[in-house]
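Structure ticket #2291
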Amino acid sequence: MDIYANRAGNKPSTGASISIKIIPLETILNILNLSKTYQSAGRMLTVLDNINFAIATGSTNAIVGPSGSGKTTLLGLCAGLDRSSSGSVELNGINLSNLTEDQRAQVRNQHVGFIFQNFQLLPTLTALENVMVPLELRNERNIKARALDLLDKVGLADRGHHYPSQLSGGEQQRVSLARAFSNAPKILFADEPTGNLDAETSEKVVKLIFDLNKEAGTTLVVVTHDLELAAKTQRIIRIKGGKLISDEKTING
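Resolution: structure written out below.
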């Protein structure tokens, strides 16, 4: 069966064939017995230990915890940026656990948006070109017009010709946000999206994330130290020492 096993009847023209387990349509992300270990100084270091949760389609969720608790590692596993040591990640009905790196990249390009704390913009490309990259990889049409529209939505219509080094931190994060939404992702992962921004800029970026998320109906999973940001979501998952210690709905849920 194709990795895009087809609950809606649509799939891309290419993709390796593997078996998957179908999960309910109302669940977009299912984490089961997930663990991650590394070899360090001759011993095994456990970064994540038997994590279990499911994320509902269209919901907003925060993962919080102290530095070194495994939050960013967990987000990377959920997005298919890395492979777990044990357990499974099912994203939009696709089991990522046994996919190759190329197959996981294909899944991300089709289903995932990602915002990084340090922006991860390509320095040799303009803001407009950075937003265009995911669209080009998907062989989309009207790429430039769509990228310009996204830059306009994040208030940077007049900055498209500037390179990342010519933009402020807040502007770079807004370009990153436009890029993340360029492939119309089903789920958006954000790793400390305000971590490198001042308070005023952070507030603007957070508003953009939630406004674009609501407009597109995208599922949101954000890793943050900012408890005010976490409180804006519908659910807060707390991680400490690599273990899930609480999972609670907020007043928004």
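Closing remark: The longest strand covers residues 27-40.
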